[in-house]
Amino acid sequence: MKIICIGRNYTDHIKELENEKPTDPVVFLKPDTAILLKKQPFFIPDFSNDVHYEVEVLVKINKVGKHIQKKFAHKYYDQIGLGIDFTARDLQSQLKEKGLPWEKAKSFDGAAVIGDWLDKTQFQDVDNLNFSLQKNGSLVQQGNTSLMLWKIDEIIEYVSKYFTLKIGDIIFTGTPAGVGKVNANDKLVGSIENTQMFSITVK
């Protein structure tokens, strides 16, 4: 399986990082070794002093597809999840300045939190989902999928031009504003609507 991530998919997040608004989805990959194992804490890596949380709605692919048209994209997933794209922001900034890929800052071991999964049929509209992240009991990120620059079906259409999607592949759909630094002993809790999807501690 592969993890496909979409960057800069919420205008408010683009603004907070002072990035340029993209004309096409920003796509990068994480290896399966980036997945944080269930019930394990997240350990801040020794190569970064500024690791940020980025909460994101996830989609799990359920059938093989290539060059998927938007009108058929809804047939390629039936589960919605929530996760965190951990980012070594200091390292990412250094890489961006040199025009280098982001993988070292985005794809290190434990950098992908994948919470529980929900059947999409329990939602009236996957393009209108509220989701949030709390840090130590305080709300730090809050978003709605209606605010995505590219909605889920558009993302699937776009990425399937370049990558064959396979069963079990996971798409991280982007993060809203409010990203910030994690510190040892932080507790991060993510929710979709009123359902808790994950709870992790930071070491």
Describe the structure.
The chain has 203 residues and is mostly beta strands. It has a single domain (3-201), classed as Alpha-Beta Complex (Fumarylacetoacetate hydrolase, domain 2). The chain contains 4 helices and 13 strands. The chain has helices spanning 11-16, 89-97, 103-106, 152-159, and strands at 3-7, 26-30, 51-53, 55-61, 77-85, 87-88, 112-119, 130-135, 138-144, 170-172, 180-181, 187-192, 195-201. The strands form 3 sheets. It has a 6-stranded mixed beta sheet with strand order 2-1-10-4-5-7, covered by helices on one side. A hairpin with a 2-residue loop joins β12 and β13 (195-201). The two termini are 27 Å apart. The mean pLDDT is 95.
Please outline the major beta sheet.
6 strands, mixed
Could you estimate the helical fraction of the residues in percent? 10-25%
Domains, number: 1
Q: Spans of 5+ residues with little confidence (pLDDT < 50)?
A: none
Q: For the record, what CATH class applies?
A: Alpha Beta
Index terms:
single chain; 203 residues; mainly beta; Fumarylacetoacetate hydrolase, domain 2; 6-stranded mixed beta sheet; 4-stranded antiparallel beta sheet; 13% helix; 34% strand; globular
Question: What is the secondary structure topology, with strand pairs?
Answer:
Blueprint (H helix, E strand, L loop, with lengths): L2 E5 L3 H6 L9 E5 L20 E3 L1 E7 L15 E9 L1 E2 H9 L5 H4 L5 E8 L10 E6 L2 E7 L7 H8 L10 E3 L7 E2 L5 E6 L2 E7 L2
Parallel strand pairs: 1-10
Antiparallel strand pairs: 1-2, 3-6, 3-11, 4-5, 4-10, 5-7, 8-9, 8-12, 12-13
